[in-house]
Design brief:
Elements lengths: L8 E3 L6 E3 L3 E6 L5 E4 L7 E6 L2 H10 L1 H6 L5 H12 L6
Antiparallel strand pairs: 1-2, 3-4, 3-5
Length: 93
């Protein structure tokens, strides 16, 4: 019998939809309080997930949901980086 591999799912903090982890973007706050976008989804720290959708990013920016979820001030550059990733202009480090 073939075991179906379970696909890890996470909830988007804006839409509250459960989606496969790979289809979401993770934003992380580490122990030092630094906030950054985690394209790999593997970095240590408190993570919040957002759908890969410009409207979702704009809503997150307006409502400061990332700031509340991660208990930290989220810089505007984080939202800019998220928008660039979604529009395909971001180059992976």
């Amino acid at each position: 019998m073939v075991q179906n591999k379970k696909i890890p799912e996470r909830k988007c903090v804006i839409t509250n939809e459960m989606k496969p982890k790979k289809s979401l973007i993770r934003v992380v706050r580490n122990k030092e309080g630094e906030v950054f976008v985690d394209p790999t989804g593997k970095k240590n720290g408190r993570g919040a997930y957002l759908s890969r959708d410009l409207d979702v990013i704009r809503k997150a920016e307006k409502s400061n949901v990332l700031g509340r979820t991660l208990n930290v001030e989220v810089d505007a550059s984080i939202y800019e980086e998220l928008k660039q990733i979604i529009s395909g202009k971001h180059n992976e480090k």
